[in-house]
Write a structure and sequence with these properties.
The structure is a single chain. This protein has helices at 14-34, 39-42, 53-80, 93-102, 124-144, 167-189; strands spanning 154-156, 164-166. The protein is mostly helical. It has one domain (14-189): Up-down Bundle (Four Helix Bundle (Hemerythrin (Met), subunit A)), CATH 1.20.120. A two-stranded antiparallel ribbon has the order 1-2. Helix 1 (14-34) packs antiparallel against helix 5 (124-144) and helix 1 (14-34) runs parallel beside helix 6. The chain starts with 13 loop residues before the first helix and ends in a 9-residue tail after the last helix.
Amino acid sequence: MPLPPRTYDTSLNSELERLQYQIEVIRQEAEGLLWGLSDEQFNWSPGGGAWSMAQCMDHLNVTNARMIEQMEASIEGGRQAGLRSDGPFVYSLLGRWFRKIVEPPPKFKAKAPQVFKPAPRRSMEETQAAWKKTHDRLEELILAANGLDLAKIKVRSAALPMLKFELGMAFWIQTAHDRRHLWQMRQIRNHPGFPAGC
């Protein structure tokens, strides 16, 4: 499936414009992965504790929803504090490292925190609706961050509350996390035991 056409929104900070395009690419990747699947295929697992495509996407829906709450609060706080800048932005070593380790393919396996564990089974229709909702909201937040200082505004991690990332880096980490589990979904769909469609 070809990538969505690249159009440049010159009203957006260049970094946010790239992030907005990332969301478009991620949406299209997910749509292609789920195209023509049944609920049975969506919920099929290779076994041995491995997640299904449904569980990968449910995990993304849960983590994105929780991070969106943190981002909303940080954007509002940054706006009220008058933290504005057009960049360029420099991010911490910790944030850059964290982004690197969540990029696909996974460098090592890590158990998801209990709060981010997916449900054992989900309908594809319900899961796709939640996916659309969170990614529409992520795009809205990217647009809402235009003109704000993406390096000075901090976002608390929903997974590790003691950690805070710069707002811009938090967006990059979320898109990397999406790509990580979309990569995982592709491995499941390409598995030799994946059930054939009807």
